Amino acid sequence: MPFDAVLKMMATLHKYDEGSFVAVKGAVEQVLEKCSYIQCGDKVKKLTSSDKKKILKASDLMSQNGLRVLAFAYRDESDINSTDYMKELVYIGLIGFLDPPRLDIKKAIVSCKNAGIKVVMITGDHPKTALNIAEKVGLVDDTDQAVINGLELPDMKSLTTEWKNRILSTLVFARTTPHQKLDIAEIFQQAGNIVAMTGDGVNDAPALKKADVGIAMGLRGTQVAKESANIVLKNDSFSSIAEAVGHGREIFNNIKKFVIYLVSCNLSEIFIVTTLGFYAPASTMLPMQILFLNIVTDVFPALALGLGIGDKTVMTRPPRSPKEDIVTHQEWITIGVYALIITLSVMVAVICCKLFITSDHNTLNNVAFVTLAFAQLFHVFNMSSPKSKLIYNEVTSNHFVWYALILCTALMVLVFMVPHLRLVLGLTVMTIDVWVVAIVASLIPLVVIQMYKIYSNYTSS
């Protein structure tokens, strides 16, 4: 009889010339229920209730030390009915073995807690063994010692509100069956949680299927568990789950930065064309200039943001709601503000040039073009997270961003240096003072937004 997660025992029946022999091992409580005798040296005695208490006490002591305990028993008779051989067993003894948790699990659990992820242990081990392991990995502390034994869990259909609340507040479940694992996952889901469940056995398949994210073990997991899961861990490491969550959040944030940057730049172009149409109609942006900006100064920095390593503080923030849009209402407002500030920088350059340098329409158009191009390039640094450092953050440490800026700057210089390209884009040779006005004005969005971030961080701290 192979190991059964419900019976928590396994047995083998052996036939030989003089009779039959049954060998049994499993959880202490379950094995003792099937035992009627105890082996004492070379003699077999009747197993008394006092003996059982001593055995259970010894098992508890071993479990408290973090050992996984197995009880062993046998039956040796001339003729044993193969359909009912799990009774009248002779108890032999206990074996405690150490199965220490990996050293990196404690750090991973801390990371999950900081990220707003509740880690729950559901095991078939003895409650004291489970609690000992939970303390070693930092899942519980001295003030949080509650363990629910699967033997005391009522049926799912008869669960009271009090029991549901107790389950939701418990971190360690011991002596559970696969069906109870499924029920616990369902209770957490009913409470509005997104549940990720790990498992490796055939009996874990229903729970893996029920969970929002089923995670099977790739090394020791059964084929059934792997096929039921959404994710298979190749190294069976819990730390891989925490790292995957962090990478997933980083990718999501990169996508969000990509969208915010691209939309704010394109929206600023709409505002600038509209504003220049009223202020200086003859100097408004040309279609080829807008196309050049969309292809060059918008796309390459945006792609670089998408390739970044991401913000390393993502695992210190609570998870987002799955109902939340990629770009929230507040972020749409932020996009509008970014676009207005970029528009303001272009208009400052055009107005200053018109008032103090020249009112030539071609020059004003070129000033608007150059200011907008470099304002968008500098704007990529505004995509760093609000709490990040000013100089060193996930954007400034992204070498793809610097490659994109160098490439775009080189292309901007190229279109002004090559006469044919200047003609296609409607550009002219500008004097040094005009270039200075354009470059200085293009820094306005970067300076204003970074100053606001510094102020916000200062006031929030």
Report what the structure shows.
This protein folds into three domains: 9-98, 3-Layer(aba) Sandwich (Calcium-transporting ATPase, cytoplasmic domain N); 105-241, 3-Layer(aba) Sandwich (Rossmann fold), CATH 3.40.50; 245-460, Up-down Bundle (Calcium-transporting ATPase, transmembrane domain), CATH 1.20.1110.10. The two termini are 63 Å apart. The chain has a six-stranded mixed sheet with strand order 1-2-5-6-3-4. The chain has a three-stranded parallel sheet with strand order 7-9-8, with helices on one face. A three-stranded parallel sheet has the order 10-11-12. It has 461 residues and is α/β, with parallel strands linked by helices. Helix 10 (287-306) runs parallel beside helix 12 (361-379), helix 11 packs antiparallel against helix 12 (361-379) and helix 11 (329-356) runs antiparallel to helix 15 (432-442). The protein has helices spanning 28-34, 49-64, 105-114, 127-136, 161-169, 178-190, 205-210, 223-228, 238-279, 287-306, 329-356, 361-379, 399-417, 419-425, 432-442, 444-460, and strands spanning 9-16, 19-26, 35-40, 43-46, 67-77, 89-98, 121-122, 147-149, 172-174, 196-199, 213-217, 231-233. Helix content is 52%, strand content 15%.
> For the record, what is the CATH homologous superfamily label of the largest domain?
Calcium-transporting ATPase, transmembrane domain
Q: Please, what is the average pLDDT?
A: 89
What is the CATH class of the largest domain? Mainly Alpha
> Helices and strands: which structural class?
alpha/beta
- The geometry reads as rod-shaped
Sketch the topology as an H/E string, one letter per element. EEHEEHEEHEHEHEHEHEHEHHHHHHHH
What is the spatial order of strands in the main beta sheet?
1-2-5-6-3-4
Distance between the termini: 63 Å
For the biggest sheet, the summary is: 6 strands, mixed
CATH topology of the largest domain: Calcium-transporting ATPase, transmembrane domain
Total number of beta strands: 12
* Helicity range: 40-55%
Question: Any idea how many domains?
Answer: 3
Low-confidence stretches: none
Radius of gyration: 34 Å
- Give the second-level CATH assignment, the architecture of the largest domain: Up-down Bundle
What proportion strand?
A: 5-15%
Counting H and I runs of at least 4 residues, what is the number of helices? 16
